[in-house]
Amino acid sequence: MSNELIKPKDERNFEIISSRVFHLSYESLLAVNGCFSIEYDFQENLINDLVDTSKRPAPIFLNIFPHAGKIFILFSWLSENWETYQSIVSKLETFTIPQIEIFFSNLIICHCENFFISPSKCSQMPKRIRRLFVSQYMNTLMNDFESDYISRGAINLFKMFRK
């Protein structure tokens, strides 16, 4: 993959990465960039063995940004890893907007250290919610994460930082 980035622009093969784009019909003052691997699919099948260091996990690339009154979510993977993430992507395509918001909020909290929240929105957050957010984020750094990204009842970051 990195070899593609050093090639001249007109010679790059952009088909090595596949993406599914989601958008929310409102703007949220939140931006995210992350690369991580998901260990289990929604049926709790192991799709990336993160314990076995002899196996290279399949990366997920997550980019979230506001634009023109909407928020865009780019959920990407290496095309060669389609079989690894096919069940997750297929299931995501059936999700309601609230499920998408919670799923991606959990991914942000659990896997992304590169995120930006509008300082004005952050300062408006009630202390109780701020402590909950920090607690959930810190918990993912120190403990194994449960594979269920939907029913954990995470904070809905998109609504919390809605413009």
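Above is the first protein from milestone M3; the second protein from the same milestone is given next.
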Amino acid sequence: MTTPFPIAGLALTGPGLERSAERRTDALLLPTLLGDPATRVLAIRRGRLPIDATDRLRWRAPHPDDRDRLVVFLGTDGEHTAYVGVMEDPTESDRDEGWAGLRAVAATLPAAEGATAATLIALANWHATHSRCPRCGAPTEPVLAGWVRRCAEDGSDHFPRTDPAVIMAVTDADDRLLLARGSGFLAAGMSVLAGFVEPGETLAAAVAREVAEEVGVTVTEVEYVGDQPWPFPTGLMIGFRARARDTALRLRDGEIEAARWFTRAELDAALGEEGLRIPGRASIARRLIEDWYGAPLEAPDTMLRR
């Protein structure tokens, strides 16, 4: 049976650095920090981060070239050391050993480093797609230590985007768990249902709508259990449990390829001889499945999408 308490200790949820947002208004903040050898710099290249031999983030001192790069102020630690992120240009060594995508290391990074890495990747993704003003199309430039982009033509400010999505462990009256395979999944992959929150919608309403749309099931007893930044590219996954009022599955054409109710014994068998793949250990999806199962699962970390 599931516990009555929210799940805790999710990867990427911190606590991270003290963001020290009040310092972002200082126009000299980034030049000052880049001139201080005590500043810690985390580089990012095409969504990949430098990782050391112990699977931790590899920080460095500022380089002179950093002054010509896009830089964001990430915050400070308890010792008042400042941390910044730097977007480096891609090089031939991008995929060499020592650089990794966040998905590959999220489960093993210390809590503070995971939260900081998620912040930097989300900001880098936002900057990469918001170089133009959505109002007039003119170029935008980073201000406020990388936390705002300002239109060079009309002066409007634009802020980092976060896209909330609900993700839910749906169970029936017999405490079976519903898993589904989306149209972009590998043939052996299945996960709990998820979907983006629509304008004017509560989170509970989004849970009910997504389940009804994707598999034709009505749910009640929607219960919040945790949330997780998921910067791929700019998501916030908000996790729930929900109880199904009916179990007949009517799959949404073009979006859900397969769905199935599992007992715990059936999930064990599927993960074994059937070769079922479920989300990786860093994801809230995996934790929702394990929360229902009642223990960690031995299934390896694998990519579910084609």
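Note on the second protein: The mean pLDDT is 93.
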